[in-house]
Amino acid sequence: MPLTRLYRDGVLEAEGFGVEEVAERLAEDGVVVWVDLCGPSRSDLELLAEELGLHELAVEDAVQEHERPKLDRYDTHSFLTAYAVRLDHATGRLGTVEVDAFLTSKALVTVRADDRFDIGRVTTRWDESPHLAGCGVGFLVHGLLDVVVDSHFEAVQALDDHVEGLEDMVFDERPSTTEVQRRSLAMRRSLVTLRRVVLPMREVVNTLMRRDVGLVDGPMTPYFQDVYDHVLRASEWTESLRDLVATIRDTQLNIQGYRLNLIMKKVTGWAAIIALPTAVTGFYGQNVPYPGYDQPWGFWVSTAVMVLLSLGLYASFKRRDWL
């Protein structure tokens, strides 16, 4: 069932009336109407478009999903597309929820494909600022954008925490290479998705604040400016996290290379130490007489030579930090 509200001179006067009453109520003086359609059919939208004079291209965009965040302006209204986001903390994957809106001089019509977007947060935001309700449609649009941008900010903060955990995994004494790679890939995908929905919002909010649009009046200007500041912070934070994830991946590869070189260095050093006894025993294993070959002291001399040479080579490698 569609959700509806009517404000008269900045005061909430009616809720829950039918969509068929919208045109009649908009004909009254000093009223602003909000209509929310969840999962509407094309015929529902066309009926509302006929009553409000909505452009057919805007209606088509509202029916089709996966449009980019944008603000299209027509003669009698504007069409807004934005995306709220939600992060799955278990997998690090980011989900997006599209919300469309028709903006007229006296009405805001929100369109959702399903109930994944919590419209209750929007109405709560409106109820928390009743002193701004007299600003008309600009007040309603601000509440909607504020909730959407807050979801961006919450997501980027959560992703920042995930990236910090990824850093700890990289510098762990025994890191799980597969897990680091999996989480790095998930982070990069989520950040790419977040960037795709956050960056265009700068242009959307900036356009809404223009004087020729006529949506934002004096009292609402600081509030839209606050939303715009949050959009800038979220977009800049997203860009820095993308660079950080790439740096973490490069760091992981460098650490892997360093550890491999360290292992090879140690293996080579021990191989050189083992080669000395092998050389001595190989020499004494020749079928030719050598000093003490038929005496017990000859065995002890050869053993002492092997031990002393091995210890000397070990000390030399240790002093050069080769072991």
TrEMBL record:
<protein>
    <submittedName>
        <fullName>Magnesium transporter CorA family protein</fullName>
    </submittedName>
</protein>
<keyword id="KW-1003">Cell membrane</keyword>
<keyword id="KW-1133">Transmembrane helix</keyword>
<comment type="similarity">
    <text>Belongs to the CorA metal ion transporter (MIT) (TC 1.A.35) family.</text>
</comment>
<keyword id="KW-0812">Transmembrane</keyword>
<dbReference type="InterPro" id="IPR045861">
    <property type="entry name" value="CorA_cytoplasmic_dom"/>
</dbReference>
<feature type="transmembrane region" description="Helical">
    <location>
        <begin position="267"/>
        <end position="285"/>
    </location>
</feature>
<dbReference type="InterPro" id="IPR002523">
    <property type="entry name" value="MgTranspt_CorA/ZnTranspt_ZntB"/>
</dbReference>
<keyword id="KW-0813">Transport</keyword>
<dbReference type="Pfam" id="PF01544">
    <property type="entry name" value="CorA"/>
</dbReference>
<keyword id="KW-0472">Membrane</keyword>
<dbReference type="InterPro" id="IPR045863">
    <property type="entry name" value="CorA_TM1_TM2"/>
</dbReference>
<feature type="transmembrane region" description="Helical">
    <location>
        <begin position="297"/>
        <end position="317"/>
    </location>
</feature>
